[in-house]
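REQUEST ID: PR-0412
SUBMITTED BY: lab tech R.K.
PRIORITY: routine
TASK: structure prediction, single protein chain
INPUT:
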Amino acid sequence: MPIQKLQYRPGVNRDVTSYTNEGGWIDSDKVRFRLGFPEKIGGWVKRTANTYLGSARSLFPWTALDGSKFIAVGTSSKYYIVQGDDFNDITPIRQTTTGEATFSVANGATVATVTDTSHGANVGDFVTFSDAASLGGNVTAAVLNQEYEIASVPTVNTFTINLSVTGNASDTGNGGGSTVAAFQIDCGLDTQVGGTGWGAGTWQRGTWGSSFGTGVATELSLWNEDNFGEDLLLNLRDGGVYYWDKSGGLAARAVNLVDVDNANNAPTIAKQVMVSDNSRHIIVFGTNTIGTTTQDPLLIRFSSSESLTDWAPTPTNSAGDLRIGSGSTFITAIETKREIVIFTDSTLHSMQFLGAPFSFGIQPLSTGITIMGPNAAVAVEDAVFWMGQDSFYLYEGGTQQLPCMVKEKVFFDFNYSQKDKVYAAHNAEFSEVTWYYCSDTNSVANGGTGQNNLYVTYNYAEKVWYYGTLSRSAFIDRGTFQYPIGAESGYLYDHEVGYDDDGSAMVASIEASPRSIGEGERFAFVSKIIPDITFQGSTGSSPSVDMTLSMQDYPGSPYGQAESDTVSSTAISTTTVPFEQFTTKADIRLRGRSFAFKIGSTALGVRWRLGSPRIELRQDGRR
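STATUS: complete
OUTPUT:
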């Protein structure tokens, strides 16, 4: 039988059986499709060796009037502004006490008990002490006067901190009567637990939006933000709205909007803050009604145009409010070029600037939709892509469900208790929308971390899907900065840089469904592989991939034989003209009713793109 070309349909399909998917790809990891062919994705490197605390839940880039570039990073522990290599802590202060905090440390202990009446702090909150006096021994003023993470909260009037020294018998003082304790706001939880809030608990546990816990705080820490000129507005979901003034410098903390000079009826609580690009209104969603502190989960309020402080509607300004007419709670809002698309737990709405006298108008778009969480949607020009609770959706003037060939792969191994961690990311260079999410196998209950560890990607230019393993808790596309940026485990990473995993080899592979001769009634004998692959862009001296052919007798049987060969590029020219010379062939001996093809790489500096390899194949009779 003559040489046979191995060509496969673009994209990965896991929603049909492997034999039904003959001629298609069935598994992938760190591979994308371009012009219909698979290639290894770009790599990533740390932007800086400096780290942040907690898990990053939001990234936001912007540029100041003087050209300075910033990245805002909201985490489960802190809120930072990054300039250059430095993470500058601007986490707002919740309250400050003076002369109330006292300390006690037992001889031989490294834990100090702090007494501060009605401190209101939780485990994991941060407090900074100043003007405290030495306790008389090892616990000096310098030891006390710094920032601490609260280790435990025995009572409403006491909490403990872990010291860097061990107390001794001379540490009998209490720090004096002038200690200033500045308590930072509670940034919420790093891992979601059952309790209050929309969609609380595990998937389908009670009615949608119902609660079932004891009433303790169970909100996952989720930040959102937008720039107001060169300044920044930030909001901790279901918390206050805060303002960071660039003119105060990177050492200045964000302050509550209600505390800004001349603030008039500014919102005290919200689920999201946004600055309208068209009209320059500050808009808050799921906020309190004017004159109260009661949060209305469907209320939208907006300031007067160009105003940070004017929130009370009058005949001479453009401040006002709207209420979403359906759904039970606001989830998220995404701004496109022509409108603001608003998601509730069950409906989709469009909010548009109308001008005087109404400023904004809102109209329903769709009902019966779902969305995984506040970060599960992303805008691409005038289109919005999002992950629902069991499907993927697209809005571009109308709402449609996206045909998805990996739907079961994603949702059958999805940790619904951590659905608020889903993060939708756009990579414009490759026309990709990617959702990072936590698998059920990585849940805390199953011994995992409970953090995002998988991704699924939709290429909207080629209309194909692929997926893989990668831990990212937040992500932003290139634009303000040269490269896309991802966040994970305390670091920010520049993506699409080289083809390695921050200096280590990246494992990337793609596997095809089995192919057979005719209807599969005959055996096939494979004796040769002729590769068709390019290594252009590789940085290693001898880039290589492994090509594997595996034979199978029946669809349900294991692969009985497998042979693989390393296909490498060997330069035979000394000119500076780009030149590729590949291994000519690999001789193998395999026999079976069907065969599966796989290509992958595990070495440093390898960039590969598959073409149409050939195999020498002949019929080998019946058994």
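NOTES: Residues 368 and 409 are 23 Å apart (CA to CA).
REVIEWED BY: pending
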